[in-house]
Amino acid sequence: MNKTPLFLLIILFVQNGYAQVENINATVESQVIITSKDQVPFWMWANQYGSIPLSGFSTSVIGSAYKEYEESGSYDGRESQLFDWGAGFEGRVNVGEKTEGILIEAYAKARLAMFELKAGRSKDVVGLVDTTLSSGAFSVSGNALGIPKIEISVPEFYALPFWDGLFAFKGNFAHGWLGTIPVQYGNHEPTKTYFHQKSLYGRFGKPGWKLHLYGGFNHNAFWGNTINYEPSFRLSNWQEYWYTISGKVYNSSKTGNHLGSIDLGLQYDFNSVSLLAYRQQFYDIGGLYHLSNIADGLNGISFTNKNKSQRNFKWNKILFEFLYTKSQGGELNNKITPSGDENYYNSYVYTRGWSYNYLALGNPLLTTTPAARDNLVSASNDYFLNNRIVAFHLGFEGTMNDWNILSKLTYTQNYGTYGSSTGHSIGNKRTKPYGQFGKENQFSGYIEANKNFADQFNLGVVGAIDRGGLYEDSLGMSIKASYHF
Predict the structure, then answer these.
(1) Per-residue model confidence as pLDDT tens digits over 56-65
(2) Could you give the CA distance from residue 112 to residue 129 in angstroms, rounded to a whole number?
(3) How far apart are CA 89 and CA 104, in angstroms?
(4) Cα–Cα distance, 176 to 118 (Å, whole number)
(5) I want to staple 440 with a disulfide (CB 3.0 to 4.6 A). Which of 12, 202, 444, 469 is the partner?
(6) What are phi and psi of 228, to 5 degrees?
């Protein structure tokens, strides 16, 4: 009989098992949250991938586990494993006046050379932005839960082998399932609806250059089973799919609801600072083709500190953004276009517009009716009651005495929609406004400080505030503790 002590066998088993799965990371986090007036401040719920705390006093438990690639190289002049696979899971349970569970992520992925195949729900941001501090990309910002989908992509820039990698590209093609959602067109029957997404981005500049130029586009659409609520529709599902991905027009309009952005950017590496500047140009129902909404866009510039020195206070990244969506090609003196004003995120087909699980898929500063004050003017068929805004946004990351600091400060001027000001336009016709939204100023602030202890334990404190005429005035605070293993 083997006389090896049991505890030695256990240690050997654990060590051997850890050696085989050491690229698996797991985290358990607990939060205690307090908010005033039963209202969660904006930056405590916005761009959190649908991971929303309850209002009032509540506690939350968040668990996650990820199996990452052995080497996450971008094939940008670096060696990497030819085939690899990964998976991820994150879930949240909120306990307060009610109890709810949220599945934030659940996916599997596999990589072959520069290509990746992924299936499930994941945290995604689509568009050229600073993903950690941005107010939100126009198309998909990470505000809502991820739409379950299957996707093939080149997720990181792949430098083409000729001309020493002067040109690089990345992109994706995805098919998703939105479930059965309500429509406000035809016979108003809720219908099974799908999601289409594709993108293509290019980079000019060799991997070792200080200057890189970026450009590309993304195209997103809700579509499917139009015949269920519009009996005169004569396309099969496969035909409708082709019309959707190609943007082909059927009976003077496109199938489903389409939107996206055309993005430009540049990055320059100074000796101690890296600069990233970008602009997202929006398109929704056709105004960009006529350049009628050319004034609208998201403009950003971020500075990343490359200095690795250890100081009591150090800034790591600073971001400035200016978001303008007030034009939409709907001004009284604007050129007449067949499609009229863009009315961003609202849809004449889908009742809740460009949202998923009641949250905006795109930039959350464009306000849904449930998120705003009850007394603001809104139309029954506009899920987004405020999509004409002027926004100034500041983001900051840094360290102070071993504490990691993250802050977001946002000031917006909000003008409702054209339906709540001068009336919506279609061609040379303009509808009667259903009320006067006026101008509402809003400030939303957020600060988070967290510190690692013994490499595995993290303690954090969050504070947030809303003041203005768009959201209910509120304060929020959270204390969170997490263990990583």
Answers:
(1) 999 999 999 9
(2) 27
(3) 8
(4) 12
(5) 469
(6) -65, -35
Decide if 208 contacts 216 (C-beta within 8 A).
no
The answer as to whether 445 is a domain residue is: yes
Q: What's the CA gap between 422 and 420, in Å, rounded? A: 7
Residue 206's H or E segment, with its range, is: none
Query: What is the token pair recorded at 31?
Result: 């939060």
Alpha-carbon span 89 to 485, nearest angstrom: 15
Q: How far apart are CA 407 and CA 462, in angstroms?
A: 10
What single string gives the DSSP state of each residue in 413-481? Answer: EE---GGGTT--EETTEEPPPS-----EEEEEEEEEEEEEETTTEEEEEEEEEEEESSS--EEEEEEEE
3-state helix, strand, coil in the chain (%, to 5): 10, 50, 40
Question: What pTM was computed for the model?
Answer: 0.91
Main-chain dihedrals φ then ψ at residue 439, nearest 5 degrees: -130, 125
Phi and psi at residue 329, to the nearest 5°: 70, 20
Domain coverage including residue 446: 124-143+154-477
From the list 363, 362, 413, the residue with the least C-alpha distance to 391 is: 413
The ranges of the chain with pLDDT < 50 are 1-20, 73-74
DSSP state of 331: S
Q: Reduce the DSSP state of residue 346 to 3 states and report it.
A: coil
| Domain count of the fold of the chain | 1
- Which string of DSSP letters, residue by residue, matches 147-190? PPEEEEEEEEEEE-TGGGG-EEEEEEEEEEEEEEE-B-STT---
Sign (positive or negative) of CA dihedral 469, 472, 475, 476: negative
pLDDT (tens digit per residue) in 241-273: 999 999 888 887 889 899 999 999 999 999 999
Cα 149 from Cα 159, distance rounded (Å): 27
pLDDT tens digits, 401-447: 989 999 999 999 999 999 998 888 888 888 888 889 999 999 999 99
Q: Give me 329's structure tokens.
A: 């090609």
Cβ neighbours, 10 Å, residue 338: 13
The C-alpha atoms of residue 194 and residue 421 are separated, in whole angstroms, by 33
Q: For the domain that residue 234 is a member of, what is the CATH number?
A: 2.40.160
**Is residue 404 classed exposed, middle or buried when 0-12, 13-18 and 19+ CB atoms within 10 A define those classes?**
middle
Whether residue 436 lies inside any domain: the answer is yes
